[in-house]
TrEMBL record:
InterPro entries assigned to the protein according to its UniProt record, in alphabetical order: RecG_C_sf (IPR038475), Schlafen_AlbA_2_dom (IPR007421), Schlafen_AlbA_2_dom_sf (IPR038461), WH-like_DNA-bd_sf (IPR036388), WH_DNA-bd_sf (IPR036390)
Single GO MF descriptor: helicase activity
Keyword Cell inner membrane: no
Listed name of the protein: ATP-dependent DNA helicase RecG
Hydrolase keyword on record: yes
Organism: Mucilaginibacter mallensis
Keywords: ATP-binding, Helicase, Hydrolase, Nucleotide-binding
Family matches, as Pfam families: HATPase_c_4, SLFN_AlbA_2
Ranges of residues in domain Schlafen AlbA-2: 3-108
Amino acid sequence: MPEKHNIEYKQSWRDEYLKWICGFANAQGGQLFIGIDDHGNVTGIDDYAKLMEDIPNKAVNHLGLVVDVNLQEKAGKRYLEITVPVSSIPISYHGTYHYRSGSTKQELKGTALHDFLLQKMGRTWDDMGMDHASLNEIEETAVAAFLKAAIKSGRIYPGAVQDDLVSLLENLELVAPDGKLTAAAILLFGKKPMRYFVHSYFKIGRFGVSDADLKFQDTVEGNIFEMVDRVIRLLKERYLVSPITYEGIQRIEKLEYPEAALREAILNAIVHKDYTGTTIQLSVYDDKLMLWNPGKLPADIPLEKLTKKHASHPRNKHIAEVFFRAGYIESWGRGIETILSACKTAGLPEPAFEEAWGGVVVTFFKDIYTEEYLMGLGLDERFRKVLLTVKAKGIIYNSQYQELFGVSKRTASNDLKILTEKKLLLKMGTTGKGTYYTLYWGNKGAKETL
């Protein structure tokens, strides 16, 4: 039986394995087996009697934790099963906090440790009271925009528009027990959140051929509730193009990336950002768009689970709740699914998600015509080569295909037909020498500038 997120195997006991017990207790609990190798094979131990007495004592003395240690046997070989319960309070080993995530143990530090300790106390960073913050710093137009959206979504009672500002903020849990406005209140509706959180703005940059080639940049400041719309508007006006296509006589303009996917990614970044760190950065390139959000993933949602169905664990609980009530996000952890679905519908590659530079990066790709992506479609070398050739030159004629691969006109016609049916090439014209093929860009039709 392989190791899992709540199972760990060790062939012999070492006191340092108390760190693993600590990690299990701080996460979802688990089992530590002594006398089993990494492949799940029982190797057995000889000093089991002594260990059955020592391990419980050491767990209590070093961790303040009671664990069950049971003797098991298989094929005449004895091994120990240590069952670790979930702890309702933070557990440390010699002043260091450990956490079991996936099949690995992490030592919690910095923001991750801070968030963990708050979580164990039933709190999140954004419900901390802010000294010297008053109601005069709340932007009432932002509050009004929230109420309009929340009532429309049906997630707040219509009479909320009649509530005074303090009552509304209290109902949204944006006022601390001592009466102070919370960090969430200032970020969501504050006139100038940067007075308290210097990195609460959103940075956008347009790059050329490399990261050193910064063509221009902008920052979006102000409350984060209205920030999503401001960022999207700026992208449309200054950073992204809208290729023009026609459905019959109707003129259609769509962004080069699906707006639904961009909006969801920007929302996720704003809601889940670590506001004690640096700013969100959106980098726009010729062939891709990269959104970097400071703050690591929750310890119980490793990167490999991000694109699969998972529970919602917002870093900033009260910020997430306001966006949920406004109908901007769902509470079921379906934001990534929305992004993937929107890109697929638009005929674009699946975005890439990775952890880097102390945060999370999502990369949107504008171009499906890359060697890596085409190989992933299972296309043979000849099909990949012709698509990359068309990408470089713009168009290809049947005669050029014949010359390029040394094939007959019939073979060229069949190949081009297959690529057209797969919606990788677009046939321009009907028959004759004037017919040529260009790249098919999903729902956008033929790209206008190649």
